[in-house]
């Protein structure tokens, strides 16, 4: 028996889609590896691949080897973790809120973390990532709870539109307060001046290792809850009907979001646009399955962030532009192109 022709064709289609996603995911991993190599090789001093390889395998303490091992490798590692964190955080925010415009930056999570760090710098004299990462996490939590609570007070409870409007308003408030603190006490903020615009350069030693547990924990929670997010996209009632614990899924997504955004903001400052654009871009290949969207976002986020960082190193070479300035310049045209496509609409 050959079975139902429709069922056979459906199975073939599902297998073809699965192969398509796997092939593109492998290609994305290869592209990420290439961008990491370029990130290590490109800078104020352009190093050939042989020098980079020797610095990683046969370290001799020369200036070039110190540049690779102690400056560019940690910078690239931070870029990978921050990019993955922001990309997945954007996918989570859009899935949990069922709002395609949702973004950690738009909904105030990044701005809340930034304000908490600014308060720590202004009043506690904090200077190290190990000191203010806890403030960044706390600021992310307070911002998320505050925006959700304000949005819930309107008729009908929390809606995607109301959540976005409240988030945009609170983001402006948080950013204004952070800017005011830096203007009132500019000397105190001098050593975190570039952090305020978003940067992965000149981070304190050990930054990559310190944020790694938070990013890994956030990514793990996102992957664990990704299957439930598919049901949540159909509405709370449908999700409950298929056995999904809606509140548990939402809380898990929020905890993952806080870990990812708090760690990324503490390490690199408030970098915008990555969380908004990356999920839209990867859906062209991953479709609407949140399991694949999250996996692709974890790879595509670092590709965008490191590419922007490389462009920032070259555009004013041998000087640099910070990555927080470059990401909107690269991301905005791509997002405009994406939203014009019929498949995305």
UniProtKB/TrEMBL annotation:
GO terms for molecular function: transmembrane transporter activity. It holds the Pfam family FecCD. Gene3D superfamilies: ABC transporter involved in vitamin B12 uptake, BtuC. CDD domains: TM_ABC_iron-siderophores_like. The keyword Glycosyltransferase does not apply. It is a multi-pass membrane protein. One of its GO terms (cellular component) is plasma membrane. One of its GO terms (biological process) is siderophore-iron import into cell. It is found in: Cell membrane. PANTHER family: FE(3+) DICITRATE TRANSPORT SYSTEM PERMEASE PROTEIN FECC-RELATED, FERRIC ENTEROBACTIN TRANSPORT SYSTEM PERMEASE PROTEIN. Belongs to the binding-protein-dependent transport system permease family. FecCD subfamily. This is Putative ABC transporter permease protein. It comes from Gordonia malaquae NBRC 108250.
């Amino acid at each position: 028996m050959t079975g139902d022709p429709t069922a056979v064709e459906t199975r073939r289609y599902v297998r073809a889609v699965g192969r398509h996603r796997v092939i593109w995911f492998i290609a994305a991993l290869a592209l990420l590896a290439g961008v990491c190599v370029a990130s290590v090789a490109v800078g104020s001093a352009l190093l050939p691949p042989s020098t980079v390889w020797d610095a990683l395998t046969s370290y001799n303490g020369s200036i070039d080897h110190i540049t690779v091992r102690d400056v560019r490798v940690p910078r690239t590692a931070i870029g990978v973790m921050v990019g993955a964190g922001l990309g997945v955080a954007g996918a989570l925010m859009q899935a949990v809120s069922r709002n395609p415009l949702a973004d950690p930056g738009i909904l105030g999570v990044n701005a809340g973390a930034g304000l908490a760090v600014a308060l720590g710098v202004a009043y506690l004299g904090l200077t190290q990532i190990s000191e203010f990462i806890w403030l960044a996490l706390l600021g992310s939590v307070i911002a998320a709870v505050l925006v959700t609570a304000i949005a819930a007070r309107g008729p009908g409870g929390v809606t995607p539109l109301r959540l976005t409007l409240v988030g945009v308003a609170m983001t402006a408030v948080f950013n204004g307060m952070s800017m005011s603190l830096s203007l009132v006490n500019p000397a105190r903020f001098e050593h975190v001046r570039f952090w305020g615009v978003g940067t992965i350069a000149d981070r304190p030693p050990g930054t990559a290792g310190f944020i790694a547990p938070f990013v890994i924990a956030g990514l793990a929670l996102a992957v664990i809850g990704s299957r439930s997010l598919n049901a949540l996209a159909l509405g709370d009632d449908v999700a409950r009907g298929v056995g999904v614990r809606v509140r548990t899924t939402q809380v898990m997504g929020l905890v993952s979001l806080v870990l990812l955004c708090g760690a990324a903001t503490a390490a690199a400052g408030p970098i915008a646009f990555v969380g908004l654009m990356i999920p839209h871009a990867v859906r062209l290949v991953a479709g609407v399955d949140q399991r694949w969207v999250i996996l692709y976002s974890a790879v595509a986020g670092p590709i965008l962030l490191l590419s922007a960082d490389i462009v920032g190193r070259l555009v004013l070479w041998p000087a640099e532009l910070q990555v927080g300035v470059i990401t909107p310049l690269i991301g905005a045209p791509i997002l405009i192109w994406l939203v014009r496509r019929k498949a995305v609409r």
